[in-house]
Amino acid sequence: MSVPSPNQSSGAFFKVIRGGEVFGPAPLGRREILVAGERILGIGEGFADKAKALGPVDVIDATGRSVVPGFIDQHMHFLGGGDGEGPLGRVPELHVSWITAGGVTTAVGIMGIDMEYKGLHGLLVKARELDRLGLSTYIYTGAFEVPSPYLTSSVRADIVLIDKVIGVKVAIAEDTYPNLSLEQLARLAGQLRLAANISGKAAVMHCHTGRNPKRMQPLFDLLDAVNLPIAQILPTHLNRHTPAYLEHAIRWAKLGGNIDFSAILTRRTGSVNGIGVDEAVQQVIAAGVGLEQITMSSDANVSMPVLSPEDHVIGLRNTSPGVLHREWKRVVHTNKLTLAQALPLVTANPARVLRLDDRKGTLRPGMDADIVLLTDALAVDTVICRGKVMVAGGQAVVKGPFEERDSSYIPF
Fold it and tell me: Which runs of E-coded beta strand occur in 82-191?
């Protein structure tokens, strides 16, 4: 469902994006991108006139813009996360425009701490809703607890039988769900190893890491005990405000693993137990970790405290998915990275981790037409999801059926 906009394309089968500097994420120079339906057909020059011979063409002027792959957010609470605060802490569901406004074209939904008010069936349906509106969506089965909850008969069956399930979420070092049993984690690892072989999916063990002093030790123990490829395990929230977490993150990366930093773990969102991703990236790079081993995710739509100047909690709010884009910009500026260096943290790297890199994360012929136009200040100007314009001129042009559109909305 669309809001009319003078900047919105007509929905023609062919689109040509021209005039911008293309980063795929490697710099490709000033090139045109030819989109046919949901896919990129070519990157080169002179496509507009050639495509007109085949039918109507939408030409999108990207002059003065950087043309980059759509962002991939692999940790987002579609249904709202948190709820540990009780009934008044129930975070509402996300609308599609809240997600796309931050440049995200692919998102992975995840359960929070609460499984009484919300559940995996609702998460799957929400993912399908967002997908039908244009966003590419996937989910993790499981939640905090191990043994993990599931949709069908097991975690393995969920991954093998349900298209949108690409892995499982678990918690480690979380005092509410300590999950310190090596035996239980090893059984789960066995399911994931088999699920990956059968389905061809990544079958990722996506690990929430809490504040228990054990930190990442259960994962090091798991690697010693079972032959699960380290690339199949992704620990997240590793920018906790304690040196031990970054020490463990660096140790994990030097073993060949990938590490994920959460955009919400900064005082700018109300967090008092995290450091900004920009600072975390700076420290792990200084320790010799390669940028190709680092990913960022938002952890968006969890409840976060509203703090007074004296750090007293005076309320709650949910965090916008746009926090990923905001904190990514800080990574660029703090670390003085080029676009080619910084983009993989939110494009090619998560695509590889999730084994979506045959369709997502880069701009090249045959890939999904997930494309973002950025201004010189790195603001999001235009977002295209699978060939569909979702944001134009910095404004969402596609919204869900229950989003309030304008002042004519009358409750009853």
Answer: 104-109, 136-142, 165-172
Query: Helix, strand, or coil here: 37?
Result: coil
Count of Cβ atoms closer than 10 Å to residue 62 Cβ: 24
Count Cα neighbours of 1 within 13 Å in the Cβ-side half-sphere: 12
Q: Which residues pair with 235 in a beta bridge?
A: 207
Class of residue 403 by CB neighbours under 10 A (exposed 0-12, middle 13-18, buried 19+): middle
Provide the 10 A C-beta neighbour count for residue 376. 8
Q: What's the predicted TM-score (pTM) here?
A: 0.94
Q: Give one word for 320, left, alpha or beta, with left for phi > 0 and alpha for psi -120 to 50.
A: beta
Confirm if 305 and 315 have CB atoms less than 8 A apart. yes
From first CA to last CA, the distance across the chain in angstroms is: 22
Can you read off the two tokens belonging to residue 172? 């480690």
The enclosing H or E element of 323 equals: helix 323-335
The first and second tokens of residue 349, run together, are 């790297």
Q: For the beta carbon of residue 26, count every other beta carbon within 10 angstroms.
A: 14
Residue-wise pLDDT tens digits, 298-355:
999 988 777 677 767 777 778 899 999 999 999 999 999 999 999 999 999 999 999 9
Report how far residue 328's alpha carbon sits from residue 371's, in angstroms, rounded to the nearest whole number.
17
Yes or no: say if 262 and 316 are a contact pair by the CB < 8 Å rule.
no
> To 10 degrees, what angle do helices 217-225 and 182-199 make?
60
With 0-12 / 13-18 / 19 or more C-beta atoms within 10 angstroms meaning exposed / middle / buried, residue 328 is buried
Please tell me the total number of residues recorded for the chain in this structure.
Answer: 412
Cβ atoms 265, 279 nearer than 8 A:
no
23 beta partners: 27
What span, in angstroms and rounded, lies between the C-alpha atoms of 343 and 72? 10
Q: Where are the alpha helices (DSSP H) in 163-316?
A: 182-199, 217-225, 243-254, 277-286
The CA dihedral of 37, 43, 49, 54, to the nearest 10 degrees, is -30
Chain Cα centroid distance, residue 364: 20
